[in-house]
Amino acid sequence: MTNYFEKTEYVLDKIFFRYKDASYKGQGIMMWEPDSGFHIEASVKIRAGKKPRRITFGGTTIETIPNILLKPQGYDRAVAIPVVPINPISIFANQRLSINCDRVFFFQHSRPAVDIESHTGLGLYHMIGEPLFPDVLKTETYINKHKIQWSVARKAIWHDGSQRLKLSGYMVTDDTMELRWVLSDAFRGRGPCWKFAEGVRYALSVLTGQTVQLLQREMEVKAYKRIERHKLNFARSLLIFTPFPDNIQLNKNDFIKLTEFFTMDSKEAYICRNIFDQMAEASRQQTLQGAQLLLSTILEATLRTLYNHPFVQGDRSPFPKREYIKEFVKSYLSKEWTGICDRALTVFERLRHRNAHPCWLISNRGNWSKESFEEDINDMAFLSQFYGYMIKALAGFKNLEPKFKL
Fold first, then answer.
1. Which of 33, 110, 190, 383 is most enclosed, with most CB atoms within 10 A?
2. 3-class SS at 296?
3. Is the pLDDT of residue 116 over 80?
4. 378-392: buried (b, 16+ CB within 10 Å) or exposed (e) per residue?
5. Pick from 140, 204, 151: which is nearest to 178 by CA?
6. How far from each other are the two terminal CA atoms of the chain, in whole angstroms?
7. 156 touches 135 (CB < 8 A)
């Protein structure tokens, strides 16, 4: 695969997609630029015996966006994921396909077989803030045999877990990290090797307090290779919604444990991915009220999902959140956390009720008063850090100590 940051042009020997109940095929080119993603230009024609259903203009319709199957030179096949629906006028009148795609999957099956005992993968990530990694990267520059420059920085991670897991990664630019891994058969099949890239993304995001972006991932298993490349998306800081604001340096053991946890398809991992995603969504809100509501409801959603208690329309019985939080302390934490969990419930109720019963008063402790604003900021910071500990607890971390920075 070419360098992610290089502009690239792919010759497409074949293109195939379905649209309006008809099948189309053709040939063309696909261009890649990191900032804009992929762009396909191709001449296409309808396959013999296939006619599109009639198109009516006006009204409200929901168009499904079909995936586009490709045969780029140098690859067995590829699948492009379009951003917007296909333009029917261009297809029917001009027999031309011109479309943008945020990501494309590439597949190769004819490569020489690699080590059959392990699965290898690679991920490229966009990060911000230059977090301190646990291992040292030493760089030296030579002209012939003469060393002219060298540098040492905590910008790398290295782990050799015997036959189970091996990791090696470093910051290739100030904001881009490349990580490679080798998984043993203990992870069972292609799935975990492919999902490991997302596990890394979630682990880095939680521990560094930002929405780390996966730019490209690769997987190689025996004679099979799969590559996914995304349009460049930038990481964003969670600001006061950071789960662990005291994390100055990435803890290697925490990172590996969380990565393995987020890679698997357990109920707890599913819950924790949703916890972080909603925290990230709260950090993107343009209003304080929206951020408060999204952040506070994470607690109820977590307890309802963990203890299989869905909301039922018409059921007026109160949600037993205090009983569930006690069960959570008993199963995942310790008695030391009882007071902290009680405070989390109090903060949850305060933030949620304030938005369920809004006002615009700037006095008498109204929602827009200085006192309420300061309390809201402290409440959101506390609840965000509490969710960080919930994620660690659900991931199997033991003997967690409540250390909050407020």
1. 383
2. helix
3. no
4. ebbbbbbbbbbbbbb
5. 204
6. 46
7. yes
For residues 227 and 214, the answer to whether their CB atoms sit within 8 Å is no
pLDDT at 231 (0 to 100): 96
Residue keyed to tokens 């209003």:
287
Determine contact, residues 46/71, Cβ cutoff 8 Å.
Answer: no
Query: Model's pTM, two decimal places?
Result: 0.89
Give the count of beta carbons closer than 10 Å to the beta carbon of residue 127: 22
- In percent, how much of the chain has pLDDT > 70? 86
Candidates 182, 394, 242, 185; CA nearest to 307 is: 394
Sign for the pseudo-dihedral over CA of 79, 83, 88, 92: negative
CA pair distance 182, 122, nearest whole angstrom: 9
Average pLDDT estimate for 26-36: 95
DSSP summary character for residue 85: -
Tell which residue, 119, 100, 148, 128, has the closest CA to residue 221.
Answer: 119
pLDDT score of 330? 94
Q: Which two tokens stand for residue 208?
A: 């560094």
Distance CA 379, CA 350 (A): 9
Residue 95 per-residue DSSP state: -
48-62, 161-175, 315-329 — which is least confidently predicted? 48-62
Q: Rounded distance, CA 216 to CA 178, Å?
A: 9
Please compute Rg for the chain using Cα positions. Answer: 25
Per-residue confidence (pLDDT) for residue 164, from 0 to 100: 79
* Phi/psi of residue 233, nearest 5 degrees: -120, 145
Q: Which residue has the tokens 């782990």?
A: 159
Ranges of H-type helices in 209-320: 252-263, 267-283, 288-306
- Report helix, strand or coil for 302: helix
Residues sharing a CB contact under 8 Å with residue 209, sequence separation 6 or more, in sequence order: 237, 238, 241, 242, 243, 244, 245, 247
